[in-house]
From TrEMBL:
<dbReference type="InterPro" id="IPR029063">
    <property type="entry name" value="SAM-dependent_MTases_sf"/>
</dbReference>
<dbReference type="Pfam" id="PF01795">
    <property type="entry name" value="Methyltransf_5"/>
</dbReference>
<comment type="function">
    <text>Specifically methylates the N4 position of cytidine in position 1402 (C1402) of 16S rRNA.</text>
</comment>
<feature type="binding site">
    <location>
        <position position="56"/>
    </location>
    <ligand>
        <name>S-adenosyl-L-methionine</name>
    </ligand>
</feature>
<dbReference type="InterPro" id="IPR023397">
    <property type="entry name" value="SAM-dep_MeTrfase_MraW_recog"/>
</dbReference>
<protein>
    <recommendedName>
        <fullName>Ribosomal RNA small subunit methyltransferase H</fullName>
        <ecNumber>2.1.1.199</ecNumber>
    </recommendedName>
</protein>
<comment type="similarity">
    <text>Belongs to the methyltransferase superfamily. RsmH family.</text>
</comment>
<keyword id="KW-0808">Transferase</keyword>
<feature type="binding site">
    <location>
        <position position="104"/>
    </location>
    <ligand>
        <name>S-adenosyl-L-methionine</name>
    </ligand>
</feature>
<keyword id="KW-0489">Methyltransferase</keyword>
<keyword id="KW-0949">S-adenosyl-L-methionine</keyword>
<dbReference type="GO" id="GO:0071424">
    <property type="term" value="F:rRNA (cytosine-N4-)-methyltransferase activity"/>
</dbReference>
<dbReference type="GO" id="GO:0005737">
    <property type="term" value="C:cytoplasm"/>
</dbReference>
<dbReference type="InterPro" id="IPR002903">
    <property type="entry name" value="RsmH"/>
</dbReference>
<keyword id="KW-0698">rRNA processing</keyword>
<dbReference type="GO" id="GO:0070475">
    <property type="term" value="P:rRNA base methylation"/>
</dbReference>
<keyword id="KW-0963">Cytoplasm</keyword>
Amino acid sequence: MSSVHTAVLLHEVVNGLGLARNNKTLWYLDGTIGGSHHALAIAEALKFKVNIIGLDRDPSAIKRAAEILEGKAEKIILECQDFRHLDKSLDRNGITGVDYILFDLGISSDELENSGKGFSFLKDEPLLMTMGDPTNYTFTAKDIVNSWSEEDIANVIFAYGEERFARRIARKIVSYRDKKSIETSAELAEIISLAIPTPIRFKHHRIHPATRTFQALRIAVNDELSALKQGLVVGYERLNVGGRMAVISFHSLEDRIVKNFYRFLADRGAEILTKKPKIASAEETRENPRARSAKLRIIEKI
């Protein structure tokens, strides 16, 4: 099962974690194992003298990781789990603490291209946007656009997408659904495009008009910001002294949460190793446009 995902800030993560080679086999926890690129690079840097515990909401990501990482570490534990519950995974496997943690936030290229769940506005797929099994979710993106009030839709789009035309988009969605249920990602993308003033669409032609709304719906469906807040807290609690936590964020909502949490920890003795977040080089951005918005922040537990 191949991956189409390209890891961002790979070298910055490996270097920033300050991987120590000694006689002790260290624990690395990857909260978003995805295509396993970071995990594999870290294992290679440690000459495979590492134990890996990899979590992901997406069952297909766990299957890919099992194939890619086979034989690449002394011990490999893979679980289909939201990283906000990483403490449960550690307890279940008798692990008291870990030495390195990585959260690579957002959505992977594999989910965008191959999930068939409507994450991409460039595809015509069922409007789900669930990172995990849809049957385990309270609601999907389809439920939001077809059942929620105009005000609630607008609030979600504005709060999680920082979309200035949130109310216009919500109004257009409600007007459309009064005639026909909104079923697919392509259908929703067209509705959103019609809600954006034409001059704005042409002015910002490099950015699809549905970008912010799709981000907002995905965040709402997967409760991503609450998951991040909880994951940071339990992750730091289970980080060994001298251990490091790295987080790659892709938009200001995520980055603000990470930055503020790190400041809180620094006031209590932790050391922020990235006074300014690490960003992708011009070369990496050319090769992988998704990297242009990535920010890496690292903290060490003292």
